[in-house]
Structure formats: C-alpha cells, structure tokens
Amino acid sequence: MDARKVCIIVPPSPFLLDERVFPFLGPLKVAAALESAGVPVEVLDLSGYKNFADIVREHVDETSARYFGITATTPQLPAAVEIADAIRQSRSDARIILGGTHATLTVAALNYEKKQGTVGRAHRAFDRLLPYFDTIVAGDGEETIFLAVQDDAPQVIDADGRKSPRKDLFLDNTRLNASAFPARHLIDLPSYRYTIDGVSATSLIAQLGCPFECGFCAGRLSPMLRHIRTRTTANIVEEIEQVHRTYGHTGFMFYDDELNVSKSMVELMGAITALQRNLGVEFRLRGFIKSELFTQSQAEAMHAAGFRQILVGFESGSPRILENINKKATREDNTRCVALAHAAGLKVKALMSIGHPGESARTVADTRDWLLEAKPSDFDVTVITPYPGSPYYDQATELEPGRWVYEANGDRLYQQEIDYTVDTDCYKGVPGHYVSHVWTETLSAEGLVRERDNLEHEVREHLGIPFNPSASSQLYEHSMGQTGLPGRILRVSTPQKTTLSAS
Questions:
Q1: Alpha helices per DSSP H over 117-232
Q2: Residues 307 and 374 both lie in one domain
Q3: Looking at residue 501, what is its pLDDT?
Q4: Which domain holds residue 354?
Q5: Total structural domains in the chain?
Q6: In a domain, 503, yes or no
Q7: Of 15, 196, 275, 426, whose CA is between 20 and 30 Å from 384?
C-alpha cells in the first residue's frame, strides 16, 4: 500500500440526469495540485454510471490508495454517501474526505446558525454527514487537500474565505493564477458528450465567484462563492490553447457564474479571437451572462470570439417575483438583453424558475407571456429548491418539525425539510418523475409541478422549441479476463512521469 496515494472520486450527477456531459473541474484541480507536489493520485470518474457503487467496490479491493477524496454538489450527495459507505465496508482503514459545493454550503449554513445562536436544519444537515466522512472540507481544495490527507486531520477544515479559520488556504488572485490547470489527462475527456454547434466541447472556468444576492441562490453566505477571483487573460488563453492542442477541442463552455461580471471580459474575447487567427481554427463558445450588465460591445466581442449562444438566468417574467428574489434585473432589462443578443447574432437560452415567495398562477403566466414575447432560442424551467447557503434555507423560520417558511416583502415560501443524503431532489424533467419540496400561499407543491409542466409544454409548442431529452445512464460490465478498470473510468498518475493507464 502506498501511504501517500490519493484517490479522487467524481460521483454521477442526477442534476444532469446522469449524463456524461462535462468533467467536474474542481476535483481535477485538486488532482493537479497533488500531482504537482509529487503525490501519487488517481481519478475514479463515475460520471454517467448507474452501477457506480459496484465500480467503487471493485476498485477499492484493488487500489493501494488509502485516502479517498469525494466531491459533491447537493444533488450528488446521495451518490457520495453511497460511495463512502461502499469504501468503508471494504476498507476499515480508509480516510474519506468530502469536499465540493455541498460541504462548503452546509458549513456556511452551520456557521450562520451558530452566529444566530440557533440549532436548526443546518446543524442536522451537517450531522448527517459525520457518519460517512472523516474530514469535511469547506472552501478551496487545491491547498486544503494536503491538510486533509493526514491521519490527524480535523473533522472540519473551514477554508471558506479570507476570514475563515484557515484563511491561509483561500485562493486569492495570485494563487489562482499560479495554480496548475485541471488534470484533464486523468479522465477520458473524449468520452464526454457535450457539443456546441456540432463540435466537441469541454468546460472551462475563467473566474470564480458571483457578487450578487439573489434570494434563491445557494452560496450567498459562502465567502468563497461570493468573492470574485479573476484569472489573467493570458492565463485563460494559455489553458484554452493547451486543451485545443492536446485534445483537439474547438468548443468551450465557460462555466463561470457570470462572464460579464469581469471588467476584462471584452479584452478576453479579443484575445480568444486573436488565438483562433494564430491557430488557424474557429472556436464555438457558450457561457453565462448577467442580463442588466450586458452591452452591445460585449455582445459583438462575444460573437467575434465564437459565441453563438449565451445562457441567462432571467428566472421570472413577473416584476413581483423579480423583486422578491432580489434579482436586480427588471423585466425590461431582460427583454433588452435578449434583443441585444439577437442583434449581434447570439441565440439566448433562458434559465427560468418557479416556486419563489409570492408565486401564483398569475406570476407563472407572466413568465409564460414574457417567454413568448422575448422568444429565446431555448429555455429551461425548474421548481426552486432551498439549498443550504441560500437565504431561502438559512433565513427561514421553523413553523413545526420539518416545515419551514421564508418571507420576502410579505410573501411566503413554505418548505419541507429535506435529508440531502438520501433525496436526489429532482425538480425538473419527465412529468411524474420529480416532485416539489416547496409551496406558496396559493400554489401547492403539486400545483407548482403542474404549473411548471404546463408552462414548459405551452411555450415549447408556441415557439417550436423541442424538448431536450437526456442520454441514458451507462452500465459498467466487467468482461472476462479484464484486469482492472478501463481508462474511461480510472486513470493513474505517478509523480515521476505522467501516465494514462488503466489501473
């Protein structure tokens, strides 16, 4: 057994309906940090696999790793718990670490309750993690991982922000730009299915953080997720060129919260345009923007760089709802954004949500009417989920055991407490296969689901936008005579020489 070796595990994500779409860059950044420091690391990539627990059991019986780092968003948490349980059943000596968004948000919510002098669902959400994970990491993982992979590591490492107990582990701009690019060689990048305008595409993050205070958004109490940290234009372009030269990708999905929050966004677009001229290729790009910050110059620069579609979190067509969720953008801002994009040759995917305080059949109709008026090229509608770290979750009041209420401008949002370790909380998709855990004064949980389904059906029918089906989950089957897991699932690096091999 290699006493230093670390196994990084990426669970499947029901948020993506178990599709193998984008690689998760956070764990690949952690893997790159370990590799750069000479620590043997392997990545177990379970994205899209239905029988992921069987894969884990098979690998744990064979690997020399003793430290297992699992990343998880909140929708991934049930899979992460199942993975941790599978590891523990096979290896009593294993050290299991939980990092990622859910850990960060839960610790942020816990800290908020402590400051308020209350013991509520954040405490319970945190306590539910303790039987499965030896160490819980909140905040950036690139430097925190070296503290976490110690036998005497604390139960919680709170590196979430400049004022956190371990603020020395927080990545400022300088550290961010100096950090290694994601270790994409430790996954089978070509196996991910995402395309943009028919070309193979992969994910990229140009900056971290979102400074806005939307009421529904998780991360409002997380300094790491709120604080804007920027990469230099040169650093971003270097990564794009490296990915293109290594893997041939000409499609890039920018997974920043809001690209145009950065004052250097137009400059970046110009540099990407110049890179394409130098390489003699043409890129196709997608990314998220903030509607009220969107300008004609941004739109034109994005189109020149290869953007043909932008994604925008408009959320609602109701002025009342936009005010209640503290969106800042008005209905008029959102309409102007779509018009600017269309004038520049950019399609718009509108990201909408229902189930906010004050939601009613009338406000849902307002959203429908706005979509029919603005005519985006595509859209998505979800029923809202109160995640830890969001005001909907952290600032709600418990009415009775398991029932909570959040109030905004006199309007109420009622919530059922969720055990995120077991509930995948699918809040959109095929009718009859998901539920709502929230309701309002005029719409029941079942009523919100009906309103969402009817809205999606009606708008798609009127605008001629087809429903986006998901790809089916994959099953891993062990073949006779096969030795170890295939490179599509497992890749191993050595500190002396990077290798791409099945273990």
A1: 121-127, 144-148, 173-178, 223-226
A2: yes
A3: 34
A4: 194-463
A5: 2
A6: no
A7: 196
